[in-house]
Amino acid sequence: MYSNKKLNYEIDDILLDYKLFDTLKAINNEKSQRKAAISLNISHSVLNRRILKAEKLLNQQLVIVSNRGSKLTGYALSLLDDYESYEHRLNDDEIITVAGGYVSCEFLRQLAMAYNIRIRVLQSDMDTCIKLADSGMVDILAFDDPVKAYMLNIEPTPLARDCLLLLSHKKEQFNDINQLDGLRFVEVEGSSQRLAWTTLADYDLDFDIVNVVNSFHEAIKLVENDENLYTFINNSMSYRCQYTSNIISRQTQHIISAFNVKNDDLIDNFLNFASHRAQNLTQKYGFKQI
Q1: Are residues 100 and 75 in contact, defined by beta-carbon separation less than 8 angstroms?
Q2: Using an 8 Å Cβ cutoff, are 230 and 164 in contact?
Q3: Which residue pairs, CB below 8 angstroms and at least 24 apart, start in 266-271?
Q4: Residue 288 gets which letter from DSSP?
Q5: Spatial distance between the Cα atoms of 74 and 218, rounded to a whole number of angstroms
Q6: SS (H, E, C) 28-68
Q7: pLDDT tens per residue, the chain (290 residues)?
Q8: Is the Cβ–Cβ distance between 163 and 250 less than 8 Å?
Q9: Residue 220 contacts by C-beta under 8 Å, 6 or more apart in sequence?
Q10: Residue 229 to residue 223: CA distance in whole angstroms
Q11: Residue 218 contacts residue 141 (beta carbons within 8 Å)
């Protein structure tokens, strides 16, 4: 693990140097720009230029100066709070940070409890997770869809097998894949549903993706409230849904996996446990053994 790292921070495509946040911290603590400059061992003019440059880039006021001293604006306090949250994650050697898709992250969360290690889970789209990994913020990248790892030219550790089930608003009998022709679907962006759309296309079915959402929770809620909508969910999360069909489960089998970003021995041991000795737990959580 890495400790005592300095973190640059990007907001709205603007990259802010860690020195700005050191400056904001000092002003917030000292309530005076002069005292803040002394604590940072820089001149008052250097400190002032940092603030003015950042305010111009962000088009936001960061510091309020009055005859009682200096204080941060609400925007600056919010910015600093976000930065310190990420900084804490970067420097916390005791917690393994996992970033990735919902299914693989939840799987690792459960196994971490069995393995008795502390992890922090950041569930997000893979582009965001990869940026966090590139910034040194992440120890494990977790993949719901194996193609994402292949696109990065990395070989993650396989953890378990999963497949997709069709979710409907009410109880319906699906005996043939051609019964899915003409249906309207909700897509979860960046998920393993890619396999479902490929399967439907391979069977030359006519289907419409009428809504694209960021999470399975959103997709499930939309389908549960509209009898004309359908979606696909992972078998491992089907326990929370009432009306599902395994009509394309065979065609959509896939592996969830994880990658040791920092090549850390503790993480290697954990992922080895997940992919080998924890396979009985794998079935308990609704997955198939690899």
Answers
A1: no
A2: no
A3: 266/96, 266/117, 267/96, 267/139, 267/140, 270/96, 270/111, 270/112, 270/115, 270/117, 271/140, 271/157, 271/159
A4: B
A5: 31
A6: HHHCCHHHHHHHHCCCHHHHHHHHHHHHHHHCCCCEEEECC
A7: 333 445 667 676 677 888 899 999 999 999 999 999 999 999 999 999 999 999 998 999 999 999 889 999 999 998 898 888 776 655 555 688 899 988 999 899 988 888 888 888 888 888 888 888 887 889 999 999 888 888 889 999 999 999 999 999 999 999 999 999 999 999 998 889 999 999 999 999 999 999 999 888 899 999 999 999 999 999 998 887 889 999 999 999 999 999 999 888 888 888 988 888 777 778 877 888 88
A8: yes
A9: 167, 231, 233, 240, 241
A10: 5
A11: no
Asked if 234 and 159 touch (Cβ cutoff 8 Å), the reply is no
Residue 122's SS3 state is strand
Residue with structure tokens 């640059």?
8
- The pTM (predicted TM-score) of the whole model is 0.66
Q: What are phi and psi of 217, to 5 degrees?
A: -60, -45
- At which residue do the structure tokens 């009428």 appear? 210
What is the DSSP code (8-state) at residue 214?
S
